[in-house]
Specification:
By secondary structure, this protein is α+β, with helices and mostly antiparallel strands. It has one domain: 2,3-Dihydroxybiphenyl 1,2-Dioxygenase, domain 1. Helices cover 22% and strands 39% of the residues. It contains three helices and eight strands. Strands 2-3-4-1-5-8-7-6 form an eight-stranded mixed β-sheet. The longest helix has 10 residues. Bound molecules: zinc ion (ZN). The site of zinc ion (ZN) has 6 residues, from β1 and β5.
């Protein structure tokens, strides 16, 4: 398994348009918004060097981001590390006893293949592994 970089930091927000204002003030232009129906979210990415800030707004009251905000308020919801080979990374982590939320990759924003590692195995951080071609 090879970690390539800190791909992005995912921030749960109530409103993409409200929360985007800070990044626009900082002079960072969004690469656009996208809806990921499977995760009941609308996302916007703001590139920062070779990483990005991902803002996530729920599109449904029972979605994972809505539930996160209900419990914790707005804020950092996950961090994502980019890997060269997601299947290989998942197999390696599983073999090392790391608890995975996704044992198989699913599709995230921008066509990336992603999988989540359970916070019980990461000291409380929801960790996303992301593979982009
Ligand atoms: Zn993410």
């Amino acid at each position: 398994m090879k970690i390539l970089n800190l791909d992005h930091i995912g921030i749960a927000v109530k409103s993409l348009s409200e929360s985007s204002k800070l990044y626009e003030l900082l002079g960072i232009k969004s690469t656009g918004t996208e809806e990921v129906a499977g995760q009941k979210v609308k996302v916007a990415f703001f590139p920062v060097g070779d990483s990005e800030v991902e803002l996530l707004e729920s599109t449904a009251p029972d979605g994972p981001i809505a539930r996160y905000i209900e419990k914790n308020g707005e804020g950092i919801q996950h961090i994502a590390l980019r890997v060269d080979d997601l299947e290989k990374a998942l197999a390696e982590l599983k073999a090392k006893g790391v608890r995975l939320i996704d044992e198989k990759p699913r599709y995230g924003a921008g066509g990336a293949r992603i999988a989540f590692v359970h916070p019980k195995s990461t000291g409380g951080i929801l960790l996303e592994l992301s593979e982009k071609k």
